[in-house]
C-alpha cells in the first residue's frame, strides 16, 4: 500500500535531504498510516523537531497537524489534536469520532493499533470528542491508569469532573463519582438538584452511553423561561443558549434601558468575565449614544448560569 513512499524515500536520499537511516526506517514503518505524498513531506518536517511532540491526522487523511517543544507527551497530544480538529471544523458543524483526528506518532514513535499505547491514545481522543474541548487530558490520563473498579463523572452544565477508583464494585464507584461531582457543583449552583448535576461518562475504562444535553435539563428549561422575562431584546434571546453552553467563568449583561446584549466566557474569574462583558456592552452603546450615564449603561443579569437580577 502507498508504494510511492518507498520511491519518495529513494529520491530523498539521492537529493541528500535525509541521510539518516533511522528516519528512513521510521518512514517505512508508517507507510500504512501516511496517505499521500504531502503527508510524507509533512512527517519529514515533524521528524526533525524536538520532543515532546505529536503528529495527528484526520480519519480521511486530508488534514494533519503536529505540536512540538512541549514539556510532556500529554501536552503534545492535546495540542496536535486541537490543531488538527480545528481544521476539521472548517468543514463540519460538529466533531464526531468519524470526522475527527487521531494521533499517529509521538516523539518519532508510531502509534500502532492493538498496542496498549494505542488503546490509551484512542481513549484520550474519545475523551476530547465525547466531553468537549474544555476538558484537559491530564485528568483522563490519571484516571486511565487507576486500579480497581472506577468511574468518571462529568457535569451537565459546566466543566466540573470527578472520579473515584480502587473500589470493589462498579456500581459503588459510579455512585461515589456522581456524589463527588455533585459536591463540586454545589458552590456555583446551590439550587441544582443531583438529577440535573452530573452523569457517568466512563466506568472502568469503558465509555458509558452519554446521552445528556444541557438543553434537556430541568434547570436549563427553567432558565430559558427566566430569560424570556429578563432579556428585553426578543431577537437576542436565541443568544442565551449559546451563552449557556459556554465554559466558565462567564457573564451576560444587557442595557438598562436599551436592547443591547453582550457576554464574555471562559475567563479566569467571575469578576474578569463581568468586567469584559460590561466593556463590550458599553462599547456598543457608545456607537449610538454620546456617553455612558446611569440611564444609558449596562447591567449584569447572569453569571456562570446563575441569575443575578429579578424577573420583573
UniProtKB/TrEMBL annotation:
Top-level taxon: Bacteria
Record-given protein name? DUF3829 domain-containing protein
> Which species?
Marinomonas sargassi
Amino acid at each position: 500500500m502507498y508504494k510511492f513512499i518507498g520511491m519518495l524515500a529513494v529520491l530523498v536520499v539521492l537529493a541528500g535531504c535525509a541521510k539518516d537511516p533511522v528516519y528512513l526506517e521510521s518512514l517505512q514503518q508508517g507507510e500504512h498510516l501516511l496517505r499521500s505524498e504531502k503527508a510524507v513531506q509533512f512527517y519529514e518536517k515533524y521528524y526533525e523537531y524536538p520532543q515532546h511532540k505529536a503528529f495527528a491526522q484526520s480519519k480521511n487523511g486530508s488534514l494533519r497537524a503536529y505540536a512540538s517543544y512541549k514539556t510532556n507527551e500529554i501536552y503534545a497530544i492535546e495540542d496536535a489534536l486541537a490543531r488538527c480538529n480545528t481544521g476539521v471544523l472548517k468543514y463540519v458543524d460538529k466533531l464526531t469520532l468519524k470526522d475527527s483526528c487521531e494521533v499517529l506518532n509521538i516523539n518519532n514513535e508510531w502509534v500502532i493499533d492493538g498496542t496498549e499505547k494505542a488503546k490509551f491514545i484512542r481513549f484520550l481522543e474519545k475523551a476530547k470528542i465525547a466531553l468537549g474541548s474544555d476538558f484537559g487530558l491530564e485528568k483522563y490520563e490519571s484516571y486511565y491508569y487507576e486500579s480497581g473498579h472506577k468511574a468518571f463523572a462529568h457535569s451537565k452544565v459546566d466543566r466540573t469532573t470527578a472520579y473515584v477508583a480502587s473500589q470493589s464494585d462498579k456500581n459503588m464507584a459510579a455512585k461515589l463519582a456522581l456524589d463527588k461531582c455533585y459536591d463540586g457543583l454545589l458552590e456555583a449552583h446551590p439550587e441544582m438538584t443531583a438529577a440535573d448535576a452530573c452523569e457517568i461518562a466512563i466506568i472502568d475504562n469503558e465509555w458509558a452511553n452519554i446521552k445528556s444535553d444541557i438543553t434537556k435539563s430541568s434547570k436549563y428549561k427553567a432558565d430559558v423561561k427566566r430569560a424570556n422575562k429578563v432579556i428585553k431584546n426578543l431577537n437576542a434571546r436565541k443568544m442565551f443558549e449559546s451563552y449557556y453552553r459556554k465554559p466558565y467563568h462567564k457573564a451576560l449583561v444587557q442595557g438598562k434601558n436599551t436592547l443591547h446584549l453582550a457576554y464574555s466566557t471562559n475567563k479566569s474569574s467571575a469578576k474578569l468575565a463581568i468586567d469584559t462583558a460590561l466593556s463590550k456592552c458599553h462599547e456598543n452603546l457608545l456607537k449610538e449614544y454620546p456617553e455612558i450615564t446611569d440611564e444609558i449603561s449596562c447591567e449584569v443579569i447572569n453569571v456562570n448560569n446563575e441569575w443575578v437580577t429579578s424577573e420583573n
